[in-house]
Amino acid sequence: MTGRHTMTRERTASIGASRVEQGGLSVELVETNVHSGPIAVPRQRLYGETGIRAHALALGGSMFGWTLGNEDAERILDRFAALGGSVVDTADSYAAGRSESIIGRWMASRGTRDRMVVSTKVGHHHDRTGLAPHTLRAAVEDSLQRLGTDRIDLLYLHGEDPDVPLAETLGAVGALIDAGKVVTLGAADFSPERLIEARVLAANGLPRIEALTTRYSLMDRRSFEGAPELVAHAQGLAVLPYFALANGFLGGRVRRRAEVRHDARGERVARHLGRRGHRVLAAIDDIAFARGIQPATVALAWLLARPAVAAPVVGVSRPEQLDSLFTAASVELQRSELVELDRASV
């Protein structure tokens, strides 16, 4: 079974591309024809061994159907696609499945399904909890229906299920891959020990985990650095960090407790308002000012400089916020800048 779930369609605009510096940013020039000449396109990268080739920024859909309604979510999706983005991350548990439904309706109305890479997670929906084979199969069928598609490009197992042998879960995924309903497999918040167990099982013919999504940012390094990062790097996993901007804190808009919103997101941001948080923001500000870019761009560029990271997963509340975030893929931080950020965030 190993290898047959590799994505066969590489979504890329970089054929015949050359890398150049343009306006202080690294972009790609693609040859089109003799009349139009080369055009600038967003730089893309391979996501580990998943077969996915896309822009180094994934759009998180956790707020779709929760704090963002249909129209707001669609405007964000429109802008994301217009900028060259293609990887959309969601879960069957986000807003009880409404996030998947919004994404599915948007793809159908815009005719964008084959341009997008759809990743979703199963295991946390209130009606389909856990990773038992029958539950997983039903959850995938539900997600396919909500997404209005015949396949999930990247399916994440949403957390570990201690009550179900991993071999049984992977066997069920294998059947879904054989049926063409799942293309490649990822894990969300798996421990290093579970990832190692999964790789041993893959050596015996079960599907291989190719991607890992986990909490990781300048403000949250301990949960990934160390054993999880070593295992992810050794296995060649494509790491897609979520909460990449620490709930927006690394965007620098909140610097005092008086500016914190009185909701769940505000409470999470408030946790960073301490000596270390201000030290990190000061380091980001220095680099952003010197380069003429936004603080959030610097925070994402730091993540993209980490060897195992394929693409941060970012959520936005307004379409225009995507513009500065997309710039991160074209920013290559100097060694001295990386050292400065590392020191500030330890």
Description:
The protein has 346 residues and is α/β, with parallel strands linked by helices. It has a single domain, classed as Alpha-Beta Barrel (TIM Barrel). Helix content is 36%, strand content 19%. It has 11 helices and 15 strands. α3 crosses α4 (166-178). It is globular. The termini are far apart.
What are the salient characteristics of this protein?
346 residues; alpha/beta; TIM Barrel; 8-stranded parallel β-sheet; 3-stranded antiparallel β-sheet; 11 helices; disordered N terminus
| SS-derived structural category | alpha/beta
How many domains? The number is: 1
Rough outline: globular
**CATH architecture annotation name:** Alpha-Beta Barrel
Biggest sheet architecture: 8 strands, parallel
Helix proportion of residues, in percent? Answer: 25-40%
CATH topology: TIM Barrel
The first-level CATH class name: Alpha Beta
Strand composition percent: 15-25%
Rg of Cα set: 20 Å
Strand ordering within the main sheet:
14-13-12-11-8-7-6-15
Low-confidence stretches: 1-17
What value does the average pLDDT take? 89
Helix and strand topology:
Layout: E1 17-22, E2 25-30, E3 39-41, E4 44-46, E5 53-55, E6 58-60, H1 70-82, E7 87-89, H2 98-110, E8 117-122, E9 124-125, E10 128-129, H3 133-147, E11 152-158, H4 166-178, E12 182-188, H5 192-203, E13 209-215, H6 227-235, E14 238-242, H7 264-270, H8 275-291, H9 295-304, E15 313-314, H10 321-326, H11 335-345
Parallel strand pairs: 6-7, 6-15, 7-8, 8-11, 11-12, 12-13, 13-14
Antiparallel strand pairs: 1-2, 2-3, 4-5, 9-10
